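Researcher: Sequence recovery benchmark, item below. Answer with residues only.
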């Protein structure tokens, strides 16, 4: 798909700002499209590391079924969503990532991705993380999203505050 220019380009976040939002956010919505062309958006916890996005998943389910047929995806994170009723608007910041999602098959790579996600959730309990991974390793998948392109946007009100 050809990349479109943002119509309201003054509201576009820089690549660094967008990455920072991905690093700081803890969840977003993964959007997929199945073989039947029905869209499917699923909220997921994530971690951004090494220029990729990682997700935890069950071994089976609708998301996994779709990914086996179509690995293309988008992932949306909303970093700020502050309603200002007096002006009938929201002050927002968001990022949309476009790319492909793969199931990590290699066990060492899966372990590494689980550790990255686990440290994100609880950075001060290495022993607990090791036990948690050991107890659930065979019953989970790790998904890795490679980023083709990314776009971040903020409300014009936030631009005007800068």
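Model:
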């Amino acid at each position: 798909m050809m990349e479109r220019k943002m119509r309201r380009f003054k509201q576009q976040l820089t690549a660094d700002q967008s990455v920072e939002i991905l690093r700081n956010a803890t969840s977003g919505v993964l959007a997929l499209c199945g073989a039947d062309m029905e869209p499917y958006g699923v909220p997921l916890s994530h971690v951004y590391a090494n220029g990729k996005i990682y997700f935890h998943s069950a071994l089976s389910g609708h998301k996994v079924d779709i990914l086996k047929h179509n690995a293309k995806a988008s992932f949306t994170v909303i970093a700020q969503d502050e309603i200002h009723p007096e002006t009938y608007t929201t002050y927002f910041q968001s990022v949309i990532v476009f790319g492909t999602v793969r199931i990590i098959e290699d066990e060492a790579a899966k372990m590494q991705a689980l550790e990255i996600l686990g440290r994100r959730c609880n950075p001060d309990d290495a022993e607990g993380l090791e036990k948690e991974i050991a107890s659930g390793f065979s019953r989970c998948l790790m998904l890795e999203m490679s980023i083709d392109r990314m776009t971040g946007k903020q409300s014009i009100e936030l631009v005007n505050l800068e």
